[in-house]
Amino acid sequence: MEHPDTYQGKRVVVLGLAKSGVSVAKTFHERGALVTVNDKKERHKCPEASELEALGICVVCGHHPDDLLDAGVQLVVKNPGIPYTAPPVRQALELGIEVVTEVEVAYHLSTAPIIGITGSNGKTTTTTWVGNMLEAAGLRPIVAGNIGTPLCQAAAEASADNVLVAELSSFQLKGTFAFRPRVASLLNMSETHLDYHGTMEDYVQSKARLFRNMANGDVAVLHADDATCRALAPEIGARIWWVSSTQRVECGVYVEPPYPAGAGEGKEEERQLVYADEAGRLHPIIGVREIGVPGRYNVDNALAAVAISIAAGAEPAALAEPLRSFRGVEHRLEYVGEVNGASYYNNSKATNTKATLMALEAFEAPVVLIAGGLDRGLDFLELVPVLKERAAAVVTMGETRKSLAAIAAKAGLTNVAVVDNVDNASEAVSEAVRLAAGYAKPGDVVLLSPACASWDMFPSYEERGRMFKAAVHSL
Hints:
InterPro entries: Mur-like_cat_sf (IPR036565), Mur_ligase_C (IPR004101), Mur_ligase_C_dom_sf (IPR036615), Mur_ligase_cen (IPR013221), MurD (IPR005762). Helix content is 33%, strand content 21%.
């Protein structure tokens, strides 16, 4: 696509409302484009429609009209969650109409440099952390993208003195072409979202679009312990800074002394984060014990956040305090409270098995796990060794409740309970929390970490997490 200013008098179709669709529609309308917004949800489920109609923007809800698209449409901007198999997207591609996501539009609008952060797990935590670090360093960050504020809106509001810190999903990146961040990071890759992408190859290549336009003046931050990151590195034109918790790196950020590969926590009092600059000088950042959020995987998030922040211009000495003071993000290993000596944590954002594995490994205390959700046909077998080692009990709910109960039994657990209520989400969560509390002993951890998406019973993982917190406070 071209800059949005060039679409004056031209037809632009926006597929999907929500925050990003509204932002994109306003962007093109303000520049004189002839905008039509289409959402297949019924009109009463599209509260954003009235705001756009008041501006004179055409909004069509409830279906995809046959005449929505023709050769006269110049551009389609689709909500990232709409699959490429959806009829209007297929039709647009067949007509040769360019289809992009909001991220591509934001790139053309932004006068501020953009930091792009993606990965299967840890995106929101790392993005939020980078925002905190850049704020502490006086660099005026604006945190946006998949994390809340639409990137298009943030780009329009930013000046050259700001830095846009963007959490980016594979859905968003798949619809980019010219997009070029000045600092970009792929945190990790695991098998997820295949119902959208179809194949792991398409998922990886969608993530890799983050780097496709980067040049030698840019910096790509990659995790040396991730096989996909290592495989993509030779194709990236930017300078590469590596991060690792298990090995020293020539340029980037690592743990010293490194953790043994495959090992869990231990000897944190001896370990620290170290930045190795491009001249080979070493800069100690902070002791691992001082990091404000628990878990080995949060050490990995901290490594990436430090590297990204320094690449964006932060002084290494400015980063210790935001590393200490950070307490995590809602629904991501969020501490809820203590009841009868057991600690309760909300990790509702764990929508795949890898995220749940990392959460289980974050605690040394025995864990009573609450898991289950949308059934995507996964076998969950990789949970067995960690459940055997870390779990005291498992409570399952949602579509995958029986599958996960069988996995718990395979791990040798005898304290396993199944919540069969799938009709009332709030009651099901409350029952799961009560059952978990019955298993928990003083010193144990009760952890909601579903390993599944939420859409079987809940409108979002956020609502699932809020219900969990309410149930804990009601014990």
